[in-house]
Amino acid sequence: MGTSSLFAQKERFKALFIFNFTKNIEWPAASRGNQFVIVVIGNSELIAELETIAQTQRVGNMPIKVVDYTSLDNLNGCHLVYLSPSKSGMLSSLLTNVNGKHTLVVSDGKNLAAKGSGISFVQDGDKLKFEVSRKNIEKQGLKSSSALANLGIVVD
After folding, report:
1. What's this model's pTM, rounded to 2 decimal places?
2. Cα angle 113-128-25, degrees, rounded to a multiple of 5
């Protein structure tokens, strides 16, 4: 496999992980709405993979809407924000922006869960894994299942 197809495969795995995270996180009833909104900041390949999932899957009974953002403006009403590695410098601004809005922040890079995101992808050799901060997930008013902690690397 060439590097581009390996990259595409990794983005497909990330998209599947993100969809599975939604099954292991509970959003408050008041924040559910009529669609489940996933915002992606800085990764068009992942957007395509998530849109493929959105065509056939739902979160609970809500259809999935995938939105491509380049800035942190107007993040109201989104349930999950993925911040790509190239945008990880925006993490603290993102956390300020979504504070109290019941938004799961998923980042991509080592130690980012310790710096405030709820979940962060990490590369372990050739395996894609993820760190979980239950404290940061709860800080957003969300509940995580024990299954999520068992599947990930718990940082707190």
Report:
1. 0.94
2. 50
